[in-house]
Amino acid sequence: MPFSEEGISPSVVADFWEGGALLVSTLQRTILFLLADTGAGHRSAANAIGSAITLLSQEEHARWSESMRREMQPSVDGYEYGCLIDTFSPPNYRIEIVDVFEQCSRFPLREIVKLYAPMIRLSPQLHGKFFQQMNHEAMVKAATALGSPFIQSGLHHLMSNIEPDIIVSVHPVLNYITLQVLRKLGVPIPFVTVVTDLISVHTAWFAPGASGYVVPTEQAKAFSTQKGIDASLVHVIGLPIHPQFTCTTKQENDISERLGLIPHLPVVLLVGGGEGAGGLYTAVRAISQARLPVQLLVVAGRNEELHTRLQRIRSRLQVPMHLFGFVENMPDLMRISDVIVTKAGPGTICEALACGLPIILCGHIPGPESGNIAFVEHNAVGILAQRPREIVDELRRLLQPGSLLLPHRRENALRLSRPHAAFAIGQYILSHLPPPDQPSLWQRRRVSESKA
Predict the structure, then answer these.
(1) I need a surface site. Which of 133, 164, 330, 445 has the fewest CB within 10 A?
(2) What is the CATH number of the domain that holds 400?
């Protein structure tokens, strides 16, 4: 029992009023997100869910505090605490986001992972072939066995040090090895996989033995059942995007003025993902040469070479261009835009849908992004336009005065979007945690070992 016969025991994890001041709960639950920084999408997903959980926690604490204010009546000698019996404060959540290969692996595995960015820029077709060849359970198990000696001990140390109450994977290559380490630890920590591929899903996402799997589409769930995963463990919730996409924090006019945008001139946002892939350079030149009545917002991401090349031609362009590197204010940029030109990254697609942006896909990474093209076109929210001329023609169709195509695609985008997916995923993750009146699994193990 969390309470002693004399009243509230020292171990009870509940907030309470003392002299009118609310004391913060001492109960903490730790949520460990595992990822690999191959592209920005996986970290973005972890950050989105983590931020949503933080907001859910704040809301939960606010409701509890208000409930305490209503229930607790001042007495002559101070506050009565009897109403706290069987009333627990929500726990605080410690969010840990770890790049497993960077923090837990050793040579040569760590260096091999770093080849991802140059591969998708210089040889995307090679990446596509590798994706297909590895998209079999036998190949995944073989790769896991091969890489295990270079990462297993580091991952074991990470878990033992952090003592997570739940582990959430947002990257496919980590799932088999993580479940192996959990079995060796002997602590039944819940393990949840959040799939960040929309349609072209890799079999490595669905390692048998996870507590649950969160997928963004029905197609992804169908793939999981083909791989033998119990359908009751697979939940179609959506792809997590940052809570900033669900709430307007700044006025669009203020953002436009700060950037120096020309009023009433359509804004085209060009994005190449975290690595700046997708043929942005040729797209910018084609739009400029066509002298389209638009202004451009170009996000080069981490691609410094692309940023430099665009900077060199900036003064010669026939359209206004605002050039960015890796940005943290993508919600602002999307809200003030009329159309987005992007490669077929799942995160950017879902963020654009939440903002009601028609999508022009200018490229994709063969393999994981191949199915996203059909997803965009089938749902009538955009098209694939890989050639510069096709991009220009589609912009003309969308932005010509009186066009019905632009509002039609906006409506389809908003209808298809799941802007609150991060919150729903956060609630699902929290549902796996121990109740506030119970110790963590790690504490239970220590008690059990002390009695042995």
Answers:
(1) 133
(2) 3.40.50.2000
| Half-sphere exposure for 261 (CA within 13 Å, toward CB) | 24
pLDDT > 80? residue 179: yes
- Of 434 and 119, the structure prediction assigns the larger pLDDT to 434
Strands (E), 164-301: 166-169, 191-194, 212-215, 234-236, 267-271, 295-299
Q: Domain count of the chain?
A: 2
Among 172, 219, 223, 164, which Cα is nearest to 32's? 164
- 252 and 222 part of one domain: no
97 Cβ partners below 8 Å, 6+ apart? Answer: 33, 35, 43, 46, 47, 50
What's the one-letter identity of residue 449? E
Question: pLDDT value at position 276?
Answer: 57
Measured over the CA atoms of residue 245, residue 249, residue 254 and residue 255, the dihedral's sign is negative
Residue 53 belongs to what domain range? 3-240+422-440
For 58-77, how does the pLDDT look when each residue is reduced to its tens digit (9 = 90+)? 998 888 777 777 766 554 44
Is residue 255 located within the same domain as residue 355? yes
The mean per-residue pLDDT over the stretch 141-146 comes to 94
Residue 171 and residue 190 in one domain: yes
Average pLDDT, the chain: 87
Of 97, 98, 99, 94, which Cα lies nearest the Cα of 30?
Answer: 94
Q: Are residues 216 and 362 in the same domain?
A: no
